[in-house]
Each structure stands twice: as C-alpha cells, then as structure tokens.
C-alpha cells in the first residue's frame, strides 16, 4: 500500500513539473529554429518584437495513467533554409497563388498532378492535406504524417505542381507531445497575402494570362500552342534579379521582369490553363548555380523547356529581341548536358524528338545536307526572321556542316553581302545565322 501511495505521489510530482515547464515555455519558436520534441524555451514578459513569434494557443490536456490531466507540450519544426541566391529555387520557402478553379484558387487536375502521381497513397493523402490547408488559408492544420522530412518533400511536390499559388512563403510545424510521445503535428503556412489580397492578385494574374491565351486557336496542335506560349513568356519578360516577387508568376504577369523560377512557373501556369500537363523542375546548371525549368507533355510525350535560357538579346546594329529554341521541347539527353535536376520525385521520361523545335521546323540535320540548309535559310528570310539555327544530330555532322558553310564559305550561295554574322555552339551542336 505504501509503495502504491509513493508511486501515485511520484506521478503527481511529474505532472506538476510538466505543467510548470509548459507554463514557463514559449510554445512557438520563430521561423528557422528547431527544438527537440518536449523541450521548452523561457520568454521574458513584455512586448513582442518583430523578430519574435507569438506564442501558440495552449495545447489540449493529455492524461497520465492515473487519470490526472497533464498539459501537452508544443514545439516547432521549421523547414530548412533555401540556397539564398537571388535566383535560387528554395524547396521549402516557395511561393503559391490561387489556382485553376473558377474561384481562382488551386485545385488538383490532370494538368497539375504530375508530382502528386509519383507519391505513395499515404503521401497523396498528406499532399491533399497540405493543399487544402494552404488554399483554405487555415491557421493550423493537423496532419496525418508526423515525419518532418516527409512533410517537407510532399510540400515541395505541392509547389512543383501548382505554380499559381503565390501567397505562401514557407511554413512551420507545431508538434504537441506528452513526455516522449508525439500527440500530433500541425502545419502552419506563412502567408504573404491575406485571403482577400490573394484573390485580388489572382484575378490580375488571370487577366494577364488570358490576354496571352486569347491568341491560341482551336486549329493549333500542342506544339504550336506551346511555342506561342514560350514565345510570349520569353519576349514579354526581362531577366532581372531585382524584380519584385521574382520567384513567382506575379513577377512575369504583373511586372514583366523575373528570374528563372518566375519564367518557369509562368510557362507552367499557361500550360496548365489550357489543360497541358506541366511540372516545375529544380536543380543546378553549369557552375552549380541554382536553376528552375519546366517538364511539359506535348502530344502525349514529355519534354523539357527552359524559357529563362530561351531569353537572349542580340545586338549587331541595334538591339533586337530573339528567342533561343535550343531549350524548347528537348529530351533529357540534350538538356542534361547543361542542367542537373535535383527533384525529390521521379521525373518523366523525356526521350522523344518528334515535337522538338528543330525537327518540327526542318532545322534538324541528320547529315550535312546543303540543300536542306539552303531551303531553311530561304524560308527564314521569306518569313522575316531575325535568325535561324541549324541543329545537328551528331558532332561529325556539325563539323562537316560548319566546314561546308563557313570554312568553304558556301553560306554566301544563300545569303547576300560580303559578311555574315553567326554563332557556333560545339556543346549544343548548333549553328545560328543572323539574317
């Protein structure tokens, strides 16, 4: 009996100590800091500064084996920091906007479900929970999964599928524990706009996109539609690291200035608006610089498109805008010469060439065919193009075509004048002539 009374007293002391520890602790840490489950932090009384997070609401009480109420402890897990470059693609502190549904907020359709489709059934449920919490502007959403790394990975998948969600900048996880036991993990999105502000901004983005989409016709096939969208993004946007909201679609559609992720998301957004599946891909390019581009499905096959790298300016005798199609609808073997993906989900197989720009436009050379070159130059001049690029299937073909047209100067059989401006890329096996 004495042992029973002593055990009961020990439980009461433990409960009281846990309650005091809870009351002395700050349940919610500022973004970017993490404490182990159950640990508390003492906060001085007084006003909360701009750099101090407000404490979370008191957690529900748990119960010990004796039936005595014991406060549950709350801690936080903040997502990992991004790379920090102006043009970096942060896997966690990313940006969202309203979506493709009639009210302007994100839903999940076939065009915006690629990353979702690569998840397990359990992670698909988590994906739906995160998407619902974000687009519903929920202050706190209890999740079915407690593993922080899984939550981060699935959150990244949501971002990859939904370029239209621009009003979230990261998140915080709030963990409620009882002793060593985790009772629940809740998700708190960090919003950059109020719901009303997001709705108003979404309407502006939609209107700007509608102006571009109005140029499409029912007679166009997927390739023709995607080329028009690619052209509009490239020629209508200036690459600017100082552009406002440069990681979002807003930078392109509202300001006309952006960086790689803004270009990629804007192109992805337009594709999804017309029902063409597209997903954001992040990784690095030469030199290890963080970069973003798009995987898009065209006529049933997947390709890569990098509109930021398609944006070039050429200036002999005055500035002239030009579009580089070397990164439009290309297979993996072409893009991965310069781009290295770092996706947290399996990427689509991109091996087809049927709708590659150079193949469709008769500019893909499987041998050093001067007749094909002459016809391509004639067509480009007749259509008033500023340049034309020949893409070669292999290095031997590239070297032979270079020798015939430039070293032997047979280019002047097709172009008038005593000089010709050109650019040669051994890496891309391409010759560009400026007309």
TrEMBL record:
Q: Which InterPro entries match?
A: CAP/Cytokinesis_protein, Papain-like_cys_pep_sf, Transglutaminase-like
User: What SUPFAM superfamilies does its record include?
Assistant: Cysteine proteinases
Q: What are the protein's UniProt keywords?
A: Signal
Question: Which stretches make up the Transglutaminase-like domain?
Answer: 252-309
Tell me which positions the record assigns to the signal sequence: 1-21
Name the source's superkingdom.
Answer: Bacteria
Cite the SMART domains for this sequence.
TGc
Tell me which stretches of the chain form a coiled coil.
none
GO CC terms in record: cytoplasm
- Residues of the region (Disordered) are 31-85
Q: What is this protein called?
A: Transglutaminase-like domain-containing protein
* Organism the protein comes from: Candidatus Eisenbergiella stercorigallinarum
